[in-house]
């Protein structure tokens, strides 16, 4: 498994790549494609219209690069629900301060607004789901690299180290 810096698409590479390296990267990018027929309609368990709109926006964009598929459906729905909840928390925070006064036996103390942690939690959830369903370029290219490594191993087993 590869470890290191986040991967970039071949078009974004600036260093000198050998012909073999370029072909390998093209092959990696092609190998993460799956069918996408189940993505034509948003999941019926999305929590609100914000989540449905986000679903449609993301599917439209990811279909352009042909890297989203049926296997991403549940993670994509989870991302959209987290996004909708993040928007709700952000809208609530718009009218509040980040710190609030809390009465105690000893008087009033200033504490962090609990909505800040709720918003942060949904942002973290969005990042996790984004990575799982390939919304980040790094996630998509890592998946391609793993699949290409397996193909290379199969070729080497069959034909030797050419």
Automatic annotation (TrEMBL):
InterPro entries: Phage_term_ssu_P27
Pfam family, one: Terminase_4
Identification of the protein by name: Phage terminase, small subunit, P27 family
Originating species: Blautia obeum ATCC 29174
Organism ancestry: Bacteria, Bacillati, Bacillota, Clostridia, Lachnospirales
């Amino acid at each position: 498994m590869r470890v290191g810096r986040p991967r970039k698409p071949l078009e974004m590479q600036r260093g000198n790549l050998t012909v073999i390296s370029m072909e390998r990267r093209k092959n990696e990018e092609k190998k993460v494609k799956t069918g996408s027929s189940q993505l034509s309609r948003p999941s019926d368990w999305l929590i609100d219209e914000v989540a449905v709109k986000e679903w449609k926006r993301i599917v439209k964009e990811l279909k352009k690069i042909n890297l989203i598929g049926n296997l991403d459906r549940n993670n994509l729905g989870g991302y959209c629900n987290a996004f909708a909840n993040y928007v709700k928390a952000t809208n609530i925070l718009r009218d509040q301060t980040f710190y609030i006064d809390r009465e105690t036996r000893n008087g009033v103390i200033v504490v962090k607004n609990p909505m800040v942690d709720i918003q942060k939690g949904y942002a973290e959830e969005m990042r996790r789901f984004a990575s799982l369903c390939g919304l980040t370029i790094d996630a998509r290219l890592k998946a391609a690299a793993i699949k290409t490594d397996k193909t290379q191993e199969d070729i080497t087993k069959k034909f030797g180290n050419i």
